Amino acid sequence: MRAVYIGILTPGTTSRMRAERLRAVTPGWQWDWVDTDAPMRSSARLWRTLAFRTKRGKAVGRINAAVENAVRAESYDMVWVDKGVFLKVETVAWLRSLAKRIIHFTPDTAFHANRSRHFEAALDRYDLLVTTKSFELEGYRSRGAGERLLLTTQGYDATLHSPAEGDPQRRREVVFVGLAEPDREHCLGLLLDRGVPVRLGGRGWQRFRRKYRDCPHLAFEGEEIFGEAYASMLRGSWVGAGLLSKRFPELHTTRTFEIPACGTILATVANSETSSYFEPGEVLFFRDHEDLAASVLDLFRQPEDSLRQKAEAGRKRVLSDGRDYDSILTNILADHRLLTS
């Protein structure tokens, strides 16, 4: 089998993780990799901004040219496109002509913040469209993709997201790594105001850090927290905040599974999806920010054995339910719509 993976290959990204795990779960396959991030990163800031905002400009042209230049084989058994928002319909049609099967996978929204006219124009060229966003299923169906649609969950990398060796000391604090958003700022600010220690990482937190610059309970680890640095932050704390974005109605995120996979207690809002993934004894469910603060303070009054028991229960759940990338990707590749010639 010969296959090509087209997506972001920057180390530490979930796209790179999927590329590596796809190669791991398909022994004997010959994989070519095409990095769509390199031409984006090497473009001038103006063209990067234009590409992200409008999906137009020189950076978009460079990405499509890079794909065409990198794909050398005359035919492929499978083409995997990861987050194909910048691939023009002509490029996807050309890939379609080379491939027995072509898959599009995205862990992101397709019709909200990441909406792309290129992707929507190319929808009918894919054999399988894989999404992790249940609230976007109707958007795919309304565009005629219902019979080629597959819903899966977000996942974690079992080779990276795991507890530390031995039984190291964890801090009684809440850790969060991610983009600053008003709701997240309010949540973490309330925790600090209630005396809950918070360890923070990610971009856009300058205003928040200025507000709490004299707060002894806040520790900021930096803006670029990826890969092993991210997993290490999770392993060092007893509670990880699986805060959801308010920019769109997501019901779970990668943190939902990465946090418990690291042996850390997941704190998550209870909703239709998170409540189907976990039982109350396996995570720290909360209704609102005040409830979260009260629950964390109560949890941190408990002996370490109680914290460890809850953390281990959450980890066992994600292991038994197969939320790791290997299991998820294997299930996608086994889909009946890919097995027909």
Which keywords apply here?
single chain, 341 residues, globular, Rossmann fold, alpha/beta, 2 domains
Describe the protein's architecture and organization:
The protein folds into two domains: about 1-155 and about 325-340, Rossmann fold, CATH 3.40.50; about 170-320, Rossmann fold. The chain is built from 16 helices and twelve strands. It has helices spanning about 15-25, 35-40, 45-55, 60-70, 90-100, 115-120, 135-140, 180-195, 205-210, 225-235, 255-260, 275, 290-300, 305-320, 325-335, 335-340; strands at about 1-5, 30-35, 75-80, 100-105, 130, 150, 170-175, 200, 220, 235-240, 265-270, 285. The strands form two sheets. Strands 2-1-3-4-5-6 form a six-stranded parallel sheet, sandwiched between helices. Strands 9-8-7-10-11-12 form a six-stranded parallel sheet, sandwiched between helices. Strand 4 (about 100-105), helix 6 (about 115-120) and strand 5 (about 130) form a beta-alpha-beta unit. Helix 1 crosses helix 15 (about 325-335) and helix 8 packs across helix 13 (about 290-300). It is globular and about 65 Å long. The mean pLDDT is about 95.
